[in-house]
Structure formats: structure tokens, C-alpha cells
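Hi F.,

I've been meaning to write this up properly since the lab meeting, where we talked about keeping a consistent format for the predictions we share between groups. The idea is simple: the sequence comes first, exactly as it goes in, then the C-alpha cells exactly as they come out, then a line or two of notes. No screenshots and no reformatting. I'm using this chain as the first example so we have something concrete to point to.
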Amino acid sequence: MSTRTRPSRLAALGVLLVTGSLVITGCGNSKSSSSGGGSAASSAVPTPTAVASLAALVPADVKAGGKLVVATDASYAPNEFKDAGNNIVGMDVDMAKAIAQTLGLTADVQNATFDSIIPGITAKKYNMSLSSFTDTKEREKSVDMVTYFSAGTGTAVKKGNPGKVDATDLCGKKVAVQTGTTQADTIKGTINPACTKAGKPTIPNDGDKFDLQTDVTTALVSGRDDAMLADSPVVDYAVQQTGGQLQTIGSVSDTAPYGVVLPQGTDLSKAVQGAIQSLMANGTYKAILTKWGVQAGAVTTSTINGAAS
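Output, unedited:
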């Protein structure tokens, strides 16, 4: 999952390191479990009815199949993960199902590694993806992004912070991240160059990278790493699901929108945007976020390709 988070907060951290003015812009809440999933929330989500005007926007080839093939990296609880029965569940999964129902379709949610999803969209392997993708201008060069949620970057450490990690100064600390995320890119492209410029040791190996977010959390719980960076809902959930073995430090900042990933330039993007707005209007959107305890990330408007950076 890429950030799954936008680079601006971590880029700002690099500037702070160079100037020596370390302001707390820390990190925060998130959702990732060391075991690969907590239990699904029990709150009921209403089943939306199809909206004919939006269903009419669905491309003929997609409509003929009767379903949306949706890719997600099911290792990022509570947004997308596998429950005890090995079912793919989470906020994004419920959102995908509700979008499909609004368009008169069903959702076929398929597990995929995060860094394979956008190539899969462009190759037409999947119709869309909800997988905690932050909407960025770079991503918009190859796919459409339809916004639906807002999240920032969070930092977690072991309870008591034995490594004495400062969320605003990660130089020299062992930091776990998921492969392909913005957090991973920013360690390599911004934080470590800033550490070098400030005469400080860098984060080893440009971060300790794992294909699954669950393995990132496990690396921190086991003491292999001093800290982990992930999206704020994921960090909060990891703290909750690891039974007090972890804690957050700093504060969530530089929030940015998540986007549904879609092929560029088709009416499906307009259909999905309209579906999200419909879900916001009829209460389904709020019910989904409340079910998974992530209502703090609610937005009021969905846009197509609205990235600020």
C-alpha cells in the first residue's frame, strides 16, 4: 500500500532536521494488526439501492459482467484485512460493495500486493481498487483517483518507547514500513538525505521494508525495529489489536485524501464519484465509517483527480 500517505508531512520533517528546528509534527493513529486481522465490527450497514442515472454511466463491458473486480491489499486493518474466517473485510471492502450496489453491480474483491495494484488497473486486470491509496498527482499520471476519505501518517513504537524515538527525528532509528508506500519513498528520498545533510546517521536500509503491513507491525512488536510509519487509522488499530504492546507518538498531520483507483478517462470514474456522493447523502457512508471506528476521516465531497501534490 502506498500511502498509502502523502509525502508532505515527512518532507517537512526532512526540512526540520536540516534547520535543527524540531517541531512536533509526529504521527498518529492507524490500523494494522500483527496477526493480520481483528474481528469485524458488528454494526449493520444498510444496503443501498441502485441509482439508475449512475448505473447508466457504467461502461458497457463492465455492465455486461455484472460486477466490479476490486483489488485490495488485505493486510491493512481496519481498512482492508482478513478476518478469522479468512474473509476479506474492512472499511474499504464495505465501501466497494456499497459503490457496486449503487451502480447496480456486485463487488468481486480480490487480494493483491499493494505495489501490484496500479499496474493491474492499467492492465485492465481489475476495474478499480480501494486499498488506502492516497490521491497524489504522481498517481494521477497513470490512473484516475476518486476521493472518499482522509488520513495522515502515524508513528508507533513499543510501549514505553524503549528506543527513545522522537517522531520528528528518526535519524539513525530502525523504522519499519510497507514496501511501495509513500512512507517508504519519503524515507529514501527526503528523510535520509536530510539526516545526511544534518550530519546525523540515516535510517538503516532506507527503512526496514515488508510486503505486508501486518509484518511491519510484527517487526515492531518483536523489537526488530524501533518504530513503524503507516497511515493513521492503521497505526491506531495496530495499537488496539496488539493489546497494549505498542503506543503512538507525536500527532497525525499532513492529512490527505484516499482515492478509489480507476482506469484513466472512462465514465466509470464519474459513476463511482456519483455513487460515493449518493452514499454520503443516504447515510450509508457514515454507517460504514462508524462500523469500523474511522469516522474521523470522513469527508463531505468526492472529487475526481483532486490531489494537491
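Notes:
The mean pLDDT is 86.
The chain has two domains: 20-37+152-255, 52-150+262-294.

If this format works for you, I'll send the rest the same way.

G.
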